[in-house]
Amino acid sequence: MTQAADAADSLPLMPLTAAAKAPAPNLATPSHTVKAPSEDPFRETDVWNRIRTGFSIPDLNNSLVSKHASWYAERPDHMARTSARASLYLFHVVTELEKRNMPTELALLPFIESAFNPVAVSSANAGGMWQFMPGTGRDFNLKQNAFKDDRRSVLASTDAALTYLQKLYDMFGDWQLALAAYNWGEGSVQKAIAKNRAAGKPIDFDSLSHLMPAETRNYVPKLQAVKNIVANPARFGLSLPLIRNEPYFTAVDKTSDIDLAIAAQLAELSVDEFKALNPQFKRPVITGGEQTQILLPKENAEKFHLNLAQWGQALSTWTTHRVSSARESIASLASKFRTTPDVIRKANNLPSRGVLTAGSTILVPKISTSAHLDIPVEIADNATVNVAEEAMAKRSNYRKAKASGNKSKSRIKLVKARVSREQAGKKRRN
C-alpha cells in the first residue's frame, strides 16, 4: 500500500452531526494508561480502552519509533483531526478485528495510511482509508467503476483490508512482516527473507529493514509510535478525545435508485455529513442492486425511514446515456436532455475542455420516458467515461481529413505518372 496520510491531513475535516460529534481533545485530562485485558470488551465505555486491551503484536523499539512518536507528539492538532475522523469508523473496525481474533492495534493503521480520510488518494493512485491500489482492490472484490469506488467504502474496504492482512500473517507468521508486506508487497518481503536466509542472517523485521525502501522501513515504526501514544497519551503530553464504545452508524438497505442529495435530505444530514459515511459513491445518484447499502448515524436512520415513508416525489432524477459517436457533444446532449452543459459536466466530473469519446456512459437528467426506471446494475457496474482533450480531438479529426485527402491526391498522381507530357505529344504527332 502507498501512504497518503500527509496529503489527507491537508484536506478539510468532514463535519459531524451535532448529536454525534466526538468531544474535542482536553489536554488537561489525559486518557487512562494501559489496563489489563477485559473478558468483555463491550463493557468499555471508550473505544481507545477497548483497543488497548487487544494489543498483541510484539513491540518494536528502535530509534525510528522514537522519532515518529516525537513527530506525532509535537503535532497535537494533527492527532486531534485524525482522531475526530476516526471517531466515525473505529468502533466498526475494532469490532471486525475482534470477530477475527486479530490484534486490535491494526485498527490504528489508517492513522498511517490515510489519516482516516476515506477519500484520500496517494500520488500512486492508492485510495481510501486503507489505501488500496486499484489492482489489489480488484483482487479483493472492491468494485471500481464510473459510479462508485469500493476502495472508499467503510464496510467493503475494511473487510478487504483485514482479509488481506490476515492472509499476509498466515504467509509470514509474523505481524511486523505482514505489515511490511501490506506496504511493500509480499513478493518483495519474500525476496528479502530469502536473501537474509541465504546469508545466514535473522529474518525479523529489524534484521530485514536495511533491505527495505525508506517508506516500508518507517511504516511499522510509525504504527508502533501511534500504538505507544494510544497506550499512554499522557506520557507524550497528549490527550485523546472520547470515542464512545458504541456503533456510530447503521446500514440501511437501498430499495431503488436514489439521488445522493435526496438521501441526505431524508436523513436530515448535510451532503458532506452523508458523504463522510458513504464516500464510495462518486456520482450524484446511488445505483446498485438490493445488496447496496447506505450508512447513516443511528438516530438519522430512523429519521430517514420516517421521511421516506412520507416522500411523494421521485427518488432519482438521473439516468444513463451511452455516447454513440463524437458527434454527440456535451452541448447537444444538454439540449437533448433539457439541461445545461455545466450540469452534465458536474454530474460526470468532466473537465471543462473535455470531449466525450464514443462508448462512454454518462449520467443525464431523466426525461418523461425514463422517469420511473432504475439504472440497470450491469450498466452501472460496467460504465466507463472516456474523455479526450478538446484540442487533441480537433487535431485528430484534422489528421483524418488530411489523410483522406492525401490518399485521393496520391491516386491521381499515379495515373498522371503513367505517360509523360512529352511522350503524349509524340503520340499525338505520330
From TrEMBL:
Region (Disordered): 397-430
Origin superkingdom: Bacteria
CDD domains in the cross-refs: MltD-like
Pfam families documented for this protein: LysM (PF01476), SLT (PF01464)
Domain LysM: residue ranges: 319-364
Biased composition (Basic and acidic residues): 419-430
Alphabetical list of Gene3D superfamilies matching this protein: 1.10.530.10, LysM domain (3.10.350.10)
Basic residues biased stretches: 397-418
Family per similarity comment: Belongs to the transglycosylase Slt family.
Annotated protein name in UniProt: LysM peptidoglycan-binding domain-containing protein
Organism: Pseudoduganella albidiflava
Taxonomy of the source species: Bacteria, Pseudomonadati, Pseudomonadota, Betaproteobacteria, Burkholderiales
